[in-house]
Prior knowledge:
Layout: E1 2-10, H1 13-22, E2 34-38, E3 46-53, H2 56-69, E4 80-90
Antiparallel strand pairs: 1-3, 1-4, 2-3
Amino acid sequence: MFTLQIEHGIKDFGLWKAAFDRDPVNRAASGVTAHRISRPVEDPHYVVVELDFERRAEAEALLAKLQANVWNSPAAAPALLGAPKTRILESAV
């Protein structure tokens, strides 16, 4: 299993969550099998999103789609603050 981990600052969680729920990249069709959203307890203006995939290529393709079509669009990502920090993780167990 592979996980695309995304971290970034946000202006407002409700606004960010509404944009996430609109799903502009069609997560299911992109191979996402599960997702988790977390926030640091000391910073309500920061989110950590983990998207799980069966194949690394799917994670890489969705990351490219996010970079090209979502994160550079104020309409698609209205609550985003700054550039997201990303990494692709591989399950070690």
